[in-house]
Amino acid sequence: MTTTATERPSALHSLLAQTRQLSFWAEHAAPIGLVGLVIVFSILSPSFLTLGNIRAMLVAAAILVILAVAQAFVITTGGIDLSISATMTFGAVGFGIAWQAGLGFLPSALIAILAALIIGILNGLLIAKGKVTDFIVTLGTLSMATGLALIVSDGKPITVNSSELLTLTSGSVGPFGYPIILAAIVGLAGWFVMFRTRFGLHIQAVGGSEESAVANGVSAVKVRIAVYLICAGLAGLASLLLVARVGAAEPAINTAYLLNAIAAVVLGGVSLTGGKAKIVGPIIGALLLTALTNGLTLLGVSQFYQPLAVGLVVVLAALLTRYQKK
Protein backbone atom coordinates (compact mmCIF):
# COMPACT_ATOMS: atom_id res chain seq x y z
CA MET A 1 0.00 0.00 0.00
CA THR A 2 1.48 3.35 -1.07
CA THR A 3 1.66 6.40 1.16
CA THR A 4 -0.52 9.25 -0.05
CA ALA A 5 0.61 12.85 -0.28
CA THR A 6 -1.72 13.81 2.55
CA GLU A 7 -0.32 11.11 4.86
CA ARG A 8 3.27 12.30 4.47
CA PRO A 9 2.62 15.85 5.76
CA SER A 10 0.56 14.30 8.55
CA ALA A 11 3.56 12.21 9.68
CA LEU A 12 5.79 15.28 9.46
CA HIS A 13 3.32 17.32 11.50
CA SER A 14 3.22 14.52 14.07
CA LEU A 15 7.04 14.58 14.38
CA LEU A 16 7.08 18.37 14.69
CA ALA A 17 4.38 18.16 17.35
CA GLN A 18 6.52 15.70 19.32
CA THR A 19 9.52 18.07 19.26
CA ARG A 20 7.40 20.66 21.08
CA GLN A 21 7.07 18.30 24.03
CA LEU A 22 9.77 18.04 26.70
CA SER A 23 9.35 14.26 26.74
CA PHE A 24 10.78 14.11 23.20
CA TRP A 25 13.95 15.94 24.26
CA ALA A 26 14.21 13.85 27.42
CA GLU A 27 13.98 10.59 25.48
CA HIS A 28 16.55 11.65 22.88
CA ALA A 29 18.87 13.85 24.98
CA ALA A 30 22.02 11.83 24.23
CA PRO A 31 21.81 11.60 20.42
CA ILE A 32 20.55 15.18 20.07
CA GLY A 33 23.30 16.44 22.37
CA LEU A 34 25.97 14.43 20.54
CA VAL A 35 24.90 15.74 17.13
CA GLY A 36 24.78 19.28 18.52
CA LEU A 37 28.30 18.99 19.97
CA VAL A 38 29.68 17.57 16.72
CA ILE A 39 28.23 20.48 14.73
CA VAL A 40 29.47 23.14 17.17
CA PHE A 41 32.99 21.73 17.66
CA SER A 42 33.48 20.98 13.95
CA ILE A 43 32.74 24.66 13.23
CA LEU A 44 34.96 25.96 16.03
CA SER A 45 37.84 23.52 15.47
CA PRO A 46 38.73 22.23 11.97
CA SER A 47 40.64 19.30 13.51
CA PHE A 48 37.66 17.97 15.46
CA LEU A 49 36.23 15.84 12.64
CA THR A 50 39.54 14.61 11.27
CA LEU A 51 39.91 10.84 11.04
CA GLY A 52 42.76 10.83 13.55
CA ASN A 53 40.79 12.77 16.17
CA ILE A 54 37.66 10.66 15.68
CA ARG A 55 39.70 7.51 16.21
CA ALA A 56 41.36 9.03 19.28
CA MET A 57 37.95 9.94 20.74
CA LEU A 58 36.58 6.44 20.19
CA VAL A 59 39.63 4.86 21.84
CA ALA A 60 39.36 7.32 24.74
CA ALA A 61 35.64 6.53 25.08
CA ALA A 62 36.14 2.74 25.26
CA ILE A 63 36.63 2.55 29.03
CA LEU A 64 33.70 4.85 29.72
CA VAL A 65 31.44 2.90 27.33
CA ILE A 66 32.18 -0.34 29.21
CA LEU A 67 31.57 1.30 32.59
CA ALA A 68 28.35 2.93 31.33
CA VAL A 69 26.99 -0.44 30.16
CA ALA A 70 27.98 -1.94 33.53
CA GLN A 71 26.28 0.84 35.47
CA ALA A 72 23.16 0.60 33.27
CA PHE A 73 22.52 -2.95 34.50
CA VAL A 74 22.59 -1.83 38.14
CA ILE A 75 20.58 1.36 37.63
CA THR A 76 17.89 -0.52 35.70
CA THR A 77 17.15 -2.41 38.94
CA GLY A 78 16.81 0.92 40.75
CA GLY A 79 20.23 0.62 42.38
CA ILE A 80 23.55 2.38 41.90
CA ASP A 81 27.20 1.35 42.16
CA LEU A 82 29.39 4.11 43.57
CA SER A 83 32.32 1.70 43.84
CA ILE A 84 32.70 1.09 40.09
CA SER A 85 35.80 3.25 39.53
CA ALA A 86 37.46 1.96 42.73
CA THR A 87 36.66 -1.59 41.60
CA MET A 88 38.35 -0.86 38.27
CA THR A 89 41.38 0.54 40.13
CA PHE A 90 41.53 -2.54 42.39
CA GLY A 91 41.38 -4.77 39.31
CA ALA A 92 44.20 -2.77 37.68
CA VAL A 93 46.38 -3.17 40.77
CA GLY A 94 45.55 -6.88 40.86
CA PHE A 95 46.79 -7.12 37.28
CA GLY A 96 49.96 -5.20 38.17
CA ILE A 97 50.77 -7.37 41.19
CA ALA A 98 50.20 -10.58 39.19
CA TRP A 99 52.30 -9.30 36.30
CA GLN A 100 55.08 -8.26 38.67
CA ALA A 101 55.03 -11.80 40.07
CA GLY A 102 55.71 -13.12 36.57
CA LEU A 103 52.33 -14.75 35.91
CA GLY A 104 51.99 -13.53 32.33
CA PHE A 105 49.23 -11.59 30.59
CA LEU A 106 46.27 -14.00 30.63
CA PRO A 107 46.63 -15.13 34.29
CA SER A 108 47.13 -11.48 35.30
CA ALA A 109 44.03 -10.44 33.34
CA LEU A 110 42.03 -13.21 35.04
CA ILE A 111 43.24 -12.06 38.47
CA ALA A 112 42.24 -8.47 37.62
CA ILE A 113 38.69 -9.56 36.81
CA LEU A 114 38.50 -11.88 39.85
CA ALA A 115 39.71 -9.06 42.11
CA ALA A 116 36.94 -6.84 40.76
CA LEU A 117 34.37 -9.63 41.21
CA ILE A 118 35.24 -9.80 44.92
CA ILE A 119 33.94 -6.25 45.28
CA GLY A 120 30.92 -7.13 43.16
CA ILE A 121 29.87 -10.15 45.23
CA LEU A 122 30.31 -8.14 48.42
CA ASN A 123 28.07 -5.40 47.03
CA GLY A 124 25.47 -7.87 45.83
CA LEU A 125 25.28 -9.89 49.04
CA LEU A 126 25.10 -6.88 51.36
CA ILE A 127 22.45 -5.16 49.24
CA ALA A 128 20.33 -8.17 48.21
CA LYS A 129 20.62 -10.39 51.29
CA GLY A 130 21.71 -7.91 53.94
CA LYS A 131 19.06 -5.38 52.83
CA VAL A 132 21.52 -2.52 53.27
CA THR A 133 20.97 0.59 51.13
CA ASP A 134 22.96 0.42 47.90
CA PHE A 135 24.27 3.95 48.39
CA ILE A 136 25.81 3.09 51.77
CA VAL A 137 27.17 -0.30 50.69
CA THR A 138 28.85 0.89 47.50
CA LEU A 139 30.16 4.01 49.23
CA GLY A 140 31.74 1.70 51.78
CA THR A 141 33.20 -0.69 49.20
CA LEU A 142 34.49 2.32 47.25
CA SER A 143 36.61 3.18 50.27
CA MET A 144 37.54 -0.46 50.88
CA ALA A 145 38.65 -1.09 47.29
CA THR A 146 40.63 2.15 47.28
CA GLY A 147 42.34 1.23 50.55
CA LEU A 148 43.14 -2.31 49.40
CA ALA A 149 44.60 -1.01 46.12
CA LEU A 150 46.87 1.37 48.06
CA ILE A 151 47.89 -1.30 50.61
CA VAL A 152 48.82 -4.08 48.17
CA SER A 153 50.69 -1.66 45.88
CA ASP A 154 52.27 0.25 48.77
CA GLY A 155 50.73 3.35 47.24
CA LYS A 156 53.06 3.21 44.22
CA PRO A 157 52.26 2.75 40.52
CA ILE A 158 53.25 -0.66 39.17
CA THR A 159 54.88 -0.32 35.77
CA VAL A 160 53.70 -2.95 33.29
CA ASN A 161 55.76 -3.62 30.14
CA SER A 162 53.57 -6.09 28.31
CA SER A 163 53.58 -6.68 24.57
CA GLU A 164 49.96 -7.87 24.84
CA LEU A 165 48.91 -4.58 26.47
CA LEU A 166 50.84 -2.67 23.83
CA THR A 167 48.95 -4.57 21.15
CA LEU A 168 45.68 -3.88 22.97
CA THR A 169 46.50 -0.17 22.94
CA SER A 170 47.85 0.23 19.41
CA GLY A 171 46.44 -2.75 17.51
CA SER A 172 43.48 -2.44 15.18
CA VAL A 173 41.28 -4.21 12.67
CA GLY A 174 41.07 -1.80 9.76
CA PRO A 175 40.30 1.66 11.14
CA PHE A 176 38.97 0.28 14.44
CA GLY A 177 41.36 -0.04 17.38
CA TYR A 178 41.09 -3.01 19.73
CA PRO A 179 39.68 -0.86 22.59
CA ILE A 180 36.88 0.27 20.26
CA ILE A 181 36.16 -3.32 19.22
CA LEU A 182 36.16 -4.53 22.84
CA ALA A 183 33.76 -1.74 23.86
CA ALA A 184 31.51 -2.58 20.89
CA ILE A 185 31.44 -6.27 21.88
CA VAL A 186 30.50 -5.33 25.45
CA GLY A 187 27.77 -3.04 24.15
CA LEU A 188 26.31 -5.71 21.85
CA ALA A 189 26.50 -8.37 24.57
CA GLY A 190 24.88 -6.01 27.07
CA TRP A 191 22.06 -5.20 24.64
CA PHE A 192 21.48 -8.90 23.90
CA VAL A 193 21.38 -9.87 27.58
CA MET A 194 19.09 -7.00 28.51
CA PHE A 195 16.58 -7.29 25.68
CA ARG A 196 16.83 -10.81 24.31
CA THR A 197 17.09 -13.00 27.42
CA ARG A 198 14.78 -13.95 30.26
CA PHE A 199 17.37 -12.62 32.69
CA GLY A 200 17.17 -9.19 31.07
CA LEU A 201 13.40 -9.18 31.48
CA HIS A 202 13.86 -10.10 35.15
CA ILE A 203 16.25 -7.16 35.62
CA GLN A 204 13.65 -4.77 34.21
CA ALA A 205 10.88 -6.39 36.23
CA VAL A 206 12.79 -6.02 39.51
CA GLY A 207 13.50 -2.39 38.72
CA GLY A 208 9.91 -1.68 37.75
CA SER A 209 8.28 -3.30 40.77
CA GLU A 210 10.17 -5.76 42.94
CA GLU A 211 7.01 -6.93 44.69
CA SER A 212 5.28 -7.73 41.39
CA ALA A 213 8.41 -9.42 40.06
CA VAL A 214 8.68 -11.65 43.14
CA ALA A 215 4.96 -12.45 42.93
CA ASN A 216 5.58 -13.68 39.37
CA GLY A 217 8.38 -16.01 40.43
CA VAL A 218 11.41 -13.77 39.88
CA SER A 219 14.19 -14.08 42.46
CA ALA A 220 14.97 -10.43 43.19
CA VAL A 221 17.88 -11.46 45.43
CA LYS A 222 19.58 -13.41 42.64
CA VAL A 223 18.95 -10.65 40.10
CA ARG A 224 20.46 -7.97 42.34
CA ILE A 225 23.51 -10.08 43.14
CA ALA A 226 23.94 -10.83 39.44
CA VAL A 227 23.82 -7.20 38.27
CA TYR A 228 26.45 -6.14 40.81
CA LEU A 229 28.63 -9.05 39.67
CA ILE A 230 28.17 -8.00 36.04
CA CYS A 231 29.01 -4.42 36.93
CA ALA A 232 32.17 -5.45 38.80
CA GLY A 233 33.22 -7.93 36.13
CA LEU A 234 32.98 -5.27 33.43
CA ALA A 235 34.90 -2.87 35.68
CA GLY A 236 37.62 -5.54 35.90
CA LEU A 237 37.61 -5.82 32.11
CA ALA A 238 37.88 -2.03 31.82
CA SER A 239 40.87 -2.14 34.18
CA LEU A 240 42.85 -3.93 31.45
CA LEU A 241 42.24 -1.03 29.07
CA LEU A 242 43.16 1.39 31.86
CA VAL A 243 46.50 -0.33 32.50
CA ALA A 244 47.14 -0.54 28.75
CA ARG A 245 46.41 3.14 28.32
CA VAL A 246 48.52 4.37 31.25
CA GLY A 247 51.27 1.75 30.97
CA ALA A 248 51.05 1.11 34.70
CA ALA A 249 48.67 -0.04 37.41
CA GLU A 250 47.84 3.18 39.25
CA PRO A 251 46.50 2.67 42.81
CA ALA A 252 44.97 6.16 42.92
CA ILE A 253 41.24 6.15 42.16
CA ASN A 254 39.98 8.23 39.24
CA THR A 255 36.60 9.54 40.41
CA ALA A 256 35.94 11.08 37.00
CA TYR A 257 35.11 7.60 35.68
CA LEU A 258 32.52 7.10 38.43
CA LEU A 259 30.80 10.42 37.80
CA ASN A 260 30.96 10.11 34.02
CA ALA A 261 29.65 6.54 34.01
CA ILE A 262 26.57 7.59 35.98
CA ALA A 263 26.28 10.72 33.83
CA ALA A 264 26.36 8.65 30.63
CA VAL A 265 23.55 6.43 31.92
CA VAL A 266 21.43 9.45 32.89
CA LEU A 267 22.09 11.10 29.52
CA GLY A 268 21.19 7.83 27.86
CA GLY A 269 17.68 7.94 29.26
CA VAL A 270 17.87 5.19 31.89
CA SER A 271 15.59 6.06 34.78
CA LEU A 272 17.38 6.38 38.12
CA THR A 273 14.29 4.94 39.80
CA GLY A 274 14.69 1.71 37.82
CA GLY A 275 12.54 -0.33 35.48
CA LYS A 276 13.53 1.45 32.27
CA ALA A 277 16.40 -0.25 30.48
CA LYS A 278 18.59 1.15 27.74
CA ILE A 279 22.03 0.14 26.49
CA VAL A 280 22.49 2.16 23.31
CA GLY A 281 21.53 5.38 25.15
CA PRO A 282 24.29 5.10 27.79
CA ILE A 283 26.81 4.26 25.05
CA ILE A 284 25.84 7.43 23.16
CA GLY A 285 25.99 9.29 26.48
CA ALA A 286 29.56 8.07 26.96
CA LEU A 287 30.47 9.21 23.45
CA LEU A 288 28.85 12.59 24.12
CA LEU A 289 30.88 13.18 27.30
CA THR A 290 34.08 12.10 25.54
CA ALA A 291 33.35 14.42 22.60
CA LEU A 292 32.63 17.27 25.02
CA THR A 293 35.98 16.84 26.80
CA ASN A 294 37.86 16.39 23.54
CA GLY A 295 36.27 19.44 21.92
CA LEU A 296 37.00 21.66 24.91
CA THR A 297 40.62 20.47 24.91
CA LEU A 298 41.00 21.27 21.20
CA LEU A 299 39.62 24.76 21.86
CA GLY A 300 42.23 25.28 24.57
CA VAL A 301 39.73 25.44 27.41
CA SER A 302 41.38 24.87 30.78
CA GLN A 303 40.92 21.42 32.31
CA PHE A 304 39.53 23.17 35.38
CA TYR A 305 36.43 24.14 33.42
CA GLN A 306 35.82 20.74 31.85
CA PRO A 307 34.23 19.11 34.94
CA LEU A 308 31.99 22.18 35.20
CA ALA A 309 30.80 21.67 31.63
CA VAL A 310 30.19 17.96 32.21
CA GLY A 311 28.31 18.75 35.43
CA LEU A 312 26.04 21.24 33.69
CA VAL A 313 25.21 18.73 30.96
CA VAL A 314 24.39 16.06 33.54
CA VAL A 315 22.19 18.37 35.63
CA LEU A 316 20.27 19.35 32.50
CA ALA A 317 19.83 15.68 31.57
CA ALA A 318 18.67 14.87 35.10
CA LEU A 319 16.07 17.63 34.88
CA LEU A 320 14.86 16.28 31.54
CA THR A 321 14.38 12.78 32.99
CA ARG A 322 11.40 14.16 34.90
CA TYR A 323 9.61 14.40 31.58
CA GLN A 324 10.46 10.96 30.24
CA LYS A 325 7.57 8.78 29.17
CA LYS A 326 6.85 6.01 31.63
TrEMBL record:
The lineage of its organism: Bacteria, Bacillati, Actinomycetota, Actinomycetes, Micrococcales. It holds the Pfam family BPD_transp_2. This is ABC transporter permease. One of its GO terms (cellular component) is plasma membrane. The chain crosses the membrane at residues 29-48, 54-75, 105-128, 135-153, 173-194, 225-246, 252-272, 279-298, 304-323. GO terms for molecular function: transmembrane transporter activity. Keywords: Cell membrane, Membrane, Transmembrane, Transmembrane helix. InterPro entries: ABC_transp_permease.
